[in-house]
Amino acid sequence: MAAEPTYAAPSAGRLFFALWLPPACSGVLHAMAGAMVGRSGGRLMREDTLHLTLAFLGDIAEKRLPALTELADGLSLPRVPVRLDRLGFWAHNHILFAGSTAPAPALVALADSLQETLKEAGFLAETRAFVPHVTMLRKLLHPGKLPPLPAQEWEAEEIALVRSWRSDRGAAYETVARWPLHAAVNA
Fold first, then answer.
1. Which residues form the domain of 175?
2. What's the count of helices (H) and strands (E) in the chain, helices before strands?
3. What is the mean pLDDT of the chain?
4. Does residue 6 lie within any of the structural domains?
5. Considering the domain boundaries, does residue 61 fall inside one?
6. What percent of the chain shows pLDDT beyond 90?
7. Helix (H, G, I), strand (E, B) or coil at 114
């Protein structure tokens, strides 16, 4: 008697928790990146895909998605200030990004807490040092001198669980679920 074939569990896709940028901020970053494409090359990220990743989970089996959303339903995380005030270039992967010279401690604590919770629940193998950034251009070969970035500031009011996959137009993203971040309670 032949053994039954075994199949890998279907993936829910590459998942990550992120902060979506407010439209005014994504508009500024997209315009700056678009101006750089003409002189430096690279693949421009679509304006509606600009985000700040808090925790990257990678491929998660579809059958684990309910447990992941249930875990996130139980979180009580605070609203956090976000400030992007510099452009940077990572030569090893040819990425232009908007980052922060001094991330708000509350933002770093939010990402660290989320990663630790996901690790304890078995959704992350390890936690990583949080480096807040927004990818603006991919495959950028020669950035030249980077222009100054007018500071982009906002208070993040929700986190999103996002699914990504590659397409012929670059990365495509779908918001799986959103959760509000809570206002701080004054004692």
1. 20-180
2. 3, 10
3. 90
4. no
5. yes
6. 78
7. helix
